[in-house]
Design goal:
homodimer; 188 residues; alpha/beta; Rossmann fold; five-stranded parallel beta sheet; two-stranded antiparallel sheet
């Protein structure tokens, strides 16, 4: 997606080999850009039946709700944190976060995933793929059909995309980046 | 806001005196309803200059980004958790969460709040007002103007709304609920 790639080159920064897109995607959010991203996801999954979008807090939420406007479906986000306001009857999966360097449990209320539904996963980044694998584990527990996975930025130099595609999962990444060299971003 | 109040009565549940709206607002998200909420916030703040919307993870994000489409401004969300991808140069404030029963630090990158900007705060709930006070503290550190506060559901039986209004802050709450009695929700 050219608009996104241009924006990554213009406003993305690389620090200690990590691409930072906090100025438009995951801290400050450019809602206009998100609308174009949402339209692009709809275009890429236009032949698929999508009943619901599932994402994961925090950075996936903004992308998923804007995209959902083009799919005309509700969004559910998996929670990482405990909350008194949450149901006790949950699907859970354990995920290792490399950016946070710890395991965490993701949780979705059983009420909001219905057997036989067609669910599209959306997230901001795909790197080693652990968060997406956790979400897929939850979909399996719920007997829900996985339509595919929409990713804004895939780190093509890490294994997540390959591992998931090798399992036959449809992954649509709007930008696939190579490992930054000397702080420079290149697309694959 | 009638549509919202009707939805709270229809789909909200009360457990141990806590109103739960996870089926449409803060776990599963009804994006159509959020659009009506966004329009209503724009209507309530139509005479105000708004340059940016600030919210707080997690539940504020979806509401803020959908509302931002009607204000044509970017969104920034305060983070509660550490992340390697976040800047080191931050505004911070400490907030006590009654639902989670602990203090946490909220953080906003200094880059994304510019002196003299007019910022609207948006969040899902207002109860004791600690999260909003933390956000206001951050706005003060950044020398940013507080336009007002847009809240989806205010717990009118807790002190947050009164404390903030007594300070002269403009609070627009789309539904103000009274303390649930026998599991029943009443509006004030």
């Amino acid at each position: 997606m050219k608009l996104l790639k241009d924006r990554i080159l213009q406003d993305g920064t690389v620090e200690e080999d990590i691409l930072k897109v906090g100025s438009f995607l995951n801290h400050q959010i450019d809602v206009k850009l998100l609308n174009e991203i949402g339209k692009e996801f709809k275009e890429r999954f236009k032949d698929k039946k999508v009943d619901k979008i599932l994402t994961i807090e925090t950075s996936g939420i903004a992308i998923a709700v804007i995209a959902a406007q083009y799919f005309h479906v509700p969004v559910v986000f998996a929670r990482k944190t405990e909350s008194k306001t949450m149901d006790k009857d949950l699907y859970e999966s354990t995920v290792y976060s490399y950016t946070k360097e710890k395991n965490y449990t993701i949780k979705v209320s059983k009420k909001f995933l219905n057997e036989g539904e067609n669910v599209l996963l959306i997230d901001d980044f795909l790197a080693r793929g652990r968060a997406i694998e956790g979400l897929i584990d939850i979909l399996k527990q719920a007997n829900v059909n996985l339509v595919g996975v929409g990713i804004v930025i895939e780190k093509g130099f890490q294994e997540g995309g390959k591992v998931l595609r090798d399992k036959g999962i449809l992954i649509e990444s709007l930008a696939i980046i190579d490992k930054p060299v000397d702080g420079k971003i290149k697309f694959m």
